[in-house]
Amino acid sequence: MTMHDRDSMRKGWIAFILMSSVVGAGAYAGRPGVRNGDSQVWGRVTVRGTPVKDGTVVLKPIVDRNATWGSGLLDQHGRFHLEGSRSDVPLLPGRYHVYLCPPTRVDYALGKPVALAGFPVPQKYLDPMSPAIQLEIHDEPIHLDLRLDD
Questions:
Q1: In this predicted model, what pLDDT tens digit does every residue of 53-88 receive, in sequence order?
Q2: Least crowded by CB within 10 Å, which of 8, 63, 100, 103?
Q3: Rounded to an integer, what distance in angstroms lies between the CA atom of residue 29 and that of residue 57?
Q4: Which own/partner pairs from 123-130 qualify as long-range (CB within 8 Å, at least 24 positions apart)?
Q5: Closest Cα to residue 87, out of 37, 30, 31?
Q6: The dihedral sign for the CA sequence 130, 119, 42, 9
Q7: What is the dihedral of CA 8, 79, 132, 112, to 10 degrees?
């Protein structure tokens, strides 16, 4: 971590996003569970080093609201693999907002879904109207680790 990174963190950076591109189709093609045509974005979510075991990671296009969205369920190790909202259109290169959705249950008294108590992700990462994280997707696979350490 550079001095600039530390200063930026102190000034209110809200998340560490570590992205690494995998070069070559061969590296991506061998990833378990990935089928031809699936999104090339996968990763892990942690809060203070602990995996987030439930919920969904969502990518929402910033510029073209009609473009394909991405989402991926978190597993017990905090891992996810994004799938496009449309099977016929992949996630296109561009800028996306990233936010998380907590697991929900239906509250029959209210007649709507409500978030389960105890979801460890800070509220600012859950707001789809004002997401705290932005991501640039290029035309190559991306490994995305969201370390929500604040």
A1: 999 999 999 987 778 899 999 999 999 999 888 888
A2: 63
A3: 22
A4: 124/14, 125/14, 125/15, 125/99, 125/100, 126/99, 126/100, 126/101, 126/102, 127/99, 128/58, 128/60, 128/97, 128/99, 128/101
A5: 37
A6: positive
A7: -160
Alpha-carbon distance of 70 to 90, in angstroms, equals 9
Q: In the chain, what are the domain boundaries? A: 3-148
Structure tokens at 134: 């932005």
CATH classification for the domain delimited by 3-148, as one of 3.30.590.10, 2.40.128.260, 2.60.40.10, 2.30.110.10: 2.60.40.10
pLDDT reported for residue 92: 84
CA distance 40 to 26: 13
- Dmax over CA atoms of the chain, in Å, equals 52
